[in-house]
Design goal:
85 residues, single chain
Length: 85
């Protein structure tokens, strides 16, 4: 859930800035890395994406600390992106 919240913030940013947003996870991640305004959010965004995938396919490895850190990552992504919406 936290990953998709971050994804929607990023999508809103790209839609507002360029009039369109990346259509795949790979393109979105690459666009975040290349964008000088929000590239600082990439590591947190990527952690959320990886955690989302793990939760879906390998949930037995999740620990409470992962969820707590995920909240910190979402806050970080939001704080970078919201400045430019």
């Amino acid at each position: 859930m936290k990953f998709y919240a971050a994804l929607h913030y990023v999508q809103a940013y790209f839609a507002a800035r360029t009039g369109r947003a990346p259509t795949t996870h790979d393109r979105r991640a690459s666009a975040i890395q290349r964008d000088p305004v929000i590239s600082g959010a990439y590591d947190d965004y990527r952690y959320l994406e990886d955690l989302s995938r793990d939760a879906r396919y390998n949930f037995s490895n999740l620990q409470p600390g992962h969820i707590i850190y995920a909240e910190d990552c979402l806050v970080a992504v939001k704080s970078v992106v919201r400045l430019h919406l």
